[in-house]
Amino acid sequence: MIPNQWYAILESNEVKKGRPIGFTRMGEKMVAWRNLSGQVTVMSDLCPHRGAALSAGEIAGDHIQCPFHGFEYNTSGDCQFIPAHGKSSQPPRAMHVKTHPTQEEHGFIYLWWGDPLKEYPPLPWFENIDEQMVSSTIKKHWANHYARAIENQLDVVHLPFVHHNTIGRGNNTLVNGPVAKEVKIATGGYRLDLWVDNQPDQNQKPLKRAEMPEPTRRPLIQFYFPNLWQNWLSDDFLVFLAFAPIDDQNTMMYLRQYHKIRFPIARQLIEWLGGLGNQYILRQDERVVITQRPPRPDLENGEILIPGDYPIALYRKRRRALIDGKEE
After folding, report:
1. Do the two domains 5-113 and 134-323 of this chain adopt the same fold?
2. Which residue, 22, 38, 271, 296, is most buried by CB atoms nearer than 10 A?
3. For the chain, which residues make up each domain, given as ranges?
């Protein structure tokens, strides 16, 4: 994983008031729960007393209670009550649960994966997705590394083969460029912008990146490190993906289609049809992507990239720099 980043890991509606939820992210078993004011806490799903899962316990006011012996922990992970010692006793400081910095925005729960900071950077998000847009979500588990799933959404070469009867129709096998740019966000962080220019092969040579004209339209694909992606189809409609790392071999994907249609019947129809289409397209991708080896992609993993893979090479280079703690 890329350290020192905000990761979208759960949708807000997955964490209900009064009920803890257990899950795995970043290879670690975690529990999420809400206190009386609705604030979300994400911590290790492990009671330090005897190793029981806190997610099997209950919410006791502003505390989470271990199901084994009733130990209670606050939102900072500090033990506040040990029933066997009585209400007047002070729990030892060592009785502490690892707790992750957490923020909630855009219908997601974000987790900070990295070193604790006095001041954290802004949450990653696409500015074109505003409050005027509504969305529906498909949740999909893939049995592969999250970086493989991300690279699939930056891959312009696979479209006419994997999606020959859907988004890759037209037999546009020839890849011009592609044009892809890395953007340093003013508030910190990095984004990749990608323009797609594929066409049928009529025995002509594809244009090299240096021969491509400067784009005058907005990018079709954008990726915001560490795990957010969008297919910016129009100002009123787009497809969004959050890639939540479960562990090195599993990813939970949250696919949303955003639009501005609020009329109930039209909205339900659009979301139903879009949901069916998106699920079918994801299945087309999944069938191939989960077969890729090695499980985790990297700069030097033995693959021989071609010019059409430039967005993937750009992603791998920045990902490695972020892992190594290098800005440029």
Report:
1. no
2. 271
3. 5-113, 134-323
In CATH terms, the fold of domain 5-113 is Rieske Iron-sulfur Protein (2.102.10)
Angle, to 10 degrees, between the axis of helix 146-153 and the axis of helix 310-323? 140
Nearest-angstrom CA–CA distance, 46 and 267? 42
Q: Which residues contact 146 (CB under 8 A, 6 or more apart)?
A: 227, 243, 244, 245, 246, 251
CATH class of the 134-323 domain in this structure: alpha beta
